[in-house]
Task: structure prediction
Amino acid sequence: MRKTLYLKFILAYFIFGVFSFIFVTIFVPSMTREHFTREKAEHLYMEANHISDTYAAGLYTRETDLETVKTQLDTLALYLDSTIRIVNPSGSVVLDTAAPINVEDVVMIENFDPTATSGSYYMINDFFGNFDSEMLSVFSPITSSYMVKGYVVIHCSMSEIQASCDSILSISYITLVILLLLSLIILIFFTEMVYIPLRKITYATEQYAAGNMRYEFQVESDDEIGYLAACLNYMASRIAGAEDDQKKFVANVSHDFRSPLTSIRGYLEAMIDGTIPQDMHDKYLNIVLNETERLTKLTNSLLALNNLNTKGMLLDRTDFDINDVIRSTAASFEGTCRQRNIMIELVLTGDDMLVNADMEKIQQVLYNLLDNAIKFSHSNSAIRVETSIKGNKLFVSVKDTGIGIPKEDLKLIWNRFYKSDLSRGRDKRGTGLGLSIVKEIINCHGEHINVISTEGVGSEFIFSLSQSEEDED
Ligand code: ADP
Result:
């Protein structure tokens, strides 16, 4: 059986209860009894010493008579709640506060042995068979002329001492019950605050492990456990979201691969079975070639995105001249621009402008932005690439006067495979991945990219780069 935390705590509580009970019912009584006995014995011993030095000594030097001493000791015995005796070394009782004076019939204590206390000043027993119950007896010798003449013996009933112990013990029992009740409250508190939330969290993790990432649970507390539950909920929702993205991504990829493949296959079959006549083959082979180019572009973009995702922050940062990169990228579009009579205007700050970034990736950003700007520009128009400095940042803007982006699409253009309806007619070969790659690269650099666009007027994409530290000085 799996041991739950709750069971362990119940067990710990039970063990705590049993040990406290044993301690309070066995050890505490014996310790209390011992303490009380010793204290009482000490007190009586002092009294016995006092009696032997004062009243009793006079008895043996005949300074006082038996009657006077008895009266005095009677009062003292009453006050001490005990019996005081004066006993001769032979065991004959000279005076007993519990009995009247009787000179004729002297009481003898059989086997009286004052050394029986074996070093201690008190003993607990029936005093040589003299009492029916247990008595605490203390001795003090009465000396005169360096001789022991007799002993002052004080007896106190052990049941008296036990009664005092019992009153104290009842306090310990009440304390024990209160302690057990308090720890029970802690146990209930623990169940509410820790165990129940933990059980919810455990159940949720089991659900997540079984693949049910949509499982949601609530832990109402603002401590570490509440935070853990919130993090777990958030993590599951992110994983669920990522799973959805993954599915969407695969669906999009399959769709984008399938359409060119279907058209390639259609044209090739038509050429083989003669539906397309021989003299038209060149035209259709060119269409097939265009479709394969689209597939190559799609594959390359997917690979680029995959590399960015897996490599994360692994950038090959160097200091390079961004003006140079802008010029060479713009030059690579010369052919396309000439065909459609589009002019690329460069407005660059400084002769060379050193930035610190991954050159190849920034080149890719510029390439994608210029490619889009040309694709969505009207013939006989101009595209402007401009750089400007603000603080230690360099801003690059790629601005066209093309079809623009509808307001509602502005947030979506960064999503993978997104193409606005407006662009579809113009751009049959677009993959919808270009801007996702751009965003990913700029984010990897810890920089920002923004777009300002008005439908029918044009678009401007602006991204920031860090100037190289050398250039800043
Ligand atoms: P694609 O490869 O299809 O161009 P992108 O991710 O680069 O994919 O762009 C996504 C969409 O954003 C495009 O289909 C288009 O609708 C819109 N877009 C991007 N750049 C521009 C631009 N300069 N002018 C107008 N629309 C643009």
Observations:
- The chain has a mean pLDDT of 88.
- The longest helix spans residues 158-209.
- The CA atoms of residues 33 and 165 lie 6 Å apart.
